[in-house]
Amino acid sequence: MFRSANTAVALAIAVFAWVPPLNAQTTNGPRVPELIQPLVSRGLKVTVDTSGAPECADWAERAKEMVELWHPIVSAYLDAPLDPSEKEIHLVFKEMKGVAATSKNVITIASGWVKSHPNDLGMVLHELVHVVQDYPPTQSVWLIEGIADYIRFWMAEPEGQPKQFNRAKDNYRNGYRTTGAFLAWIEKQYKTPIVRDTNLALRRATYKDNLFEEKTGKNLDALWAEFMDRTEKPTAETKRPT
Ligand SMILES: [Zn+2]
Asked: What is the Cα–Cα distance from 234 to 225, expressed in whole angstroms?
C-alpha cells in the first residue's frame, strides 16, 4: 500500500514527467512501460462490458489499458489507499446521453460520444480520478471536478489546457478546466502543492476555503483576482493598438 509513502509520490511525479501524451500511449497497440509494470502487476482488475455497445469493443480495450496504466499513478499522487486485491474497476459502454459518469468503481461511458470523439481517452482518465478520489460525501464539487481535470490536463494532456479566461463568465468555482488551471497556477506561482493538500483535506473531510489562505497568504477571491489579471483574454478596450 502506498499511503503516505514518499517514495510512491516521488515515483508518481517521475512517471508523470516521463509518460508520453495520453493518446500516444494507447493508439499504437497495447504496451505498458516497463518502469511501471511493477505497479500494474499488483492485481488491479479492470473489466469491460460492451454488451450494450459492441461497436466500442476495440476502443474499450484501449480505455482498459489506459486505466491499468494510470490507476496506480493517480492513486499514488492522490495518496489514495492502493490495495488492488480489493480493487476492481468496471468500464461499461452503453447508449446514453452525455459523455460518461462514475459511481464508486463503475465508469459508464456513452457509446455515441466514443463514436464522435474517438481520441477522447482523456475523459476516461477524468472519470478514473473520480474512482480514486472516493471522497466522503458532500465534498466541494468544484474541487472534485477541478482536481480531475488538473490530473487530466496538467499531467497527461497538456494540449487541452485553456490559456485565457474571461472575468465575466469564468470563476474558480466553475470546476473542470477552469479550476484545474487556477490550481496549476497557484502551484507554480506560490510554489505550494495545493492539489495534494486540497485532496488530502477532501479525503479527510476537513476541507475549508481558508486552506488556500494558509498555504499562500491570500484568500481564494484575492488569488482569483490575481489569476485573472494575468490570464484574462484582452477585451476590445484593453487591447493595445497594433
Ligand atoms: Zn467529473
From this structure: 15
Closest CA to 148 of 160, 166, 138, 165: 160
Handedness of CA 194, 168, 149, 14 (dihedral sign): negative
C-alpha of residue 242 to centroid of ligand 1, in Å: 41
> What's the CA-to-centroid distance between 236 and ligand 1, angstroms?
34
- Are 183 and 196 contacting, i.e. CB atoms less than 8 angstroms apart? no
Cα–Cα distance measured from residue 92 to residue 47, given in angstroms and rounded to the nearest whole number? 8
Rounded to whole angstroms, the Cα distance separating 52 from 165 reads 39
Q: Which three cell numbers stand for residue 198?
A: 486540497
Q: Give 160's contacts (C-beta < 8 A, 6+ positions apart).
A: 122, 152, 153, 177
Cell numbers given for 101: 459518469
| Chain segment 174-215, per-residue pLDDT in tens | 999 999 999 999 999 999 999 999 999 999 999 999 999 999
Grid look-up 477571491 returns 221
Output the CA 170–ligand 1 centroid distance in Å: 18
Give the pLDDT confidence of 40-80 residue by residue, as tens digits: 546 788 999 999 999 999 999 999 999 988 888 888 888 87
CA of 200 from ligand 1 middle (Å) equals 18
Where do the domains of the chain lie? 6-133, 141-231
For residues 193 and 16, what is the distance between their CA atoms, to the nearest angstrom?
15
Distance of CA 90 from the midpoint of ligand 1 (Å) = 16
